[in-house]
Amino acid sequence: MNKTYSPKIEDIKREWFLVDVKGKTVGRIATKIADILRGKHKPMYSPHLDCGDFIVIVNAKEIRFTGNKTADKLYHHHTRYGNGLRTTTPKRLFEKMPEEVIMKAVAGMIPQNKLKKHILRKLKVYGGSEHKQTAQEPKPLDL
């Protein structure tokens, strides 16, 4: 009789990856990054555990949208006060915080459960080509 293997937390080995998103499309990059953050690229993937790797994204200022999404797409945020719905476009958000555009795209592709917060902590996004994770020696990853 075969038994089902379920990985333990101490069996999970995490790696660091460096992704340069210069000239790449937001949605296509976000899906691949979300899969790596969740650990779906590993043979020991289990949906109830956070078994993914760390990702460092550089050059977030130079990512692009396809079509007319910079003007048509809307990001909503509610302050939890009356009339507190705030809406912005990717163009305005990109001018202030280009890192936030990628964070929102990746966050939208991770399931809405208790692991989401832990999974998103493993994503580090930088607007320029410099990053603070040099001590972790991230491996370059081409997506």
Describe it for me?
There is one protein chain. The chain is of the alpha/beta class and 143 residues long. The protein has a domain of 96 residues: Ribosomal Protein L13p, Chain: A (Alpha-Beta Complex), CATH 3.90.1180. 27% of the residues lie in helices and 16% in strands. It has 5 helices and 6 strands; from the N terminus they run E-H-E-H-E-E-H-H-H-E-E. Strands 5-2-1-6 form a 4-stranded parallel β-sheet, covered by helices on one side. A hairpin with a 6-residue loop joins strand 3 and strand 4. Helix 1 packs across helix 4 and helix 3 packs across helix 4. The chain is globular.
Work out the strand percent: 15-25%
Number of helices: 5
End-to-end Cα distance: 40 Å
Rounded to an integer in angstroms, the radius of gyration calculated over CA atoms is: 17 Å
- Largest sheet, strands/sense/barrel: 4 strands, parallel
| Beta strands, count | 6
User: SSE string, helix = H, strand = E?
Assistant: EHEHEEHHHEE
CATH fold naming of the domain at 14-66 and 98-140: Ribosomal Protein L13p, Chain: A
CATH architecture tag of the domain at 14-66 and 98-140 = Alpha-Beta Complex
Largest sheet, order of strands side by side? 5-2-1-6
What is the overall silhouette? globular
- CATH class of the domain at 14-66 and 98-140, please? Alpha Beta
SS-based class: alpha/beta
Stretches where pLDDT is under 50 for at least 5 consecutive residues are none
What would CATH call the homologous superfamily of the domain at 14-66 and 98-140? Ribosomal protein L13
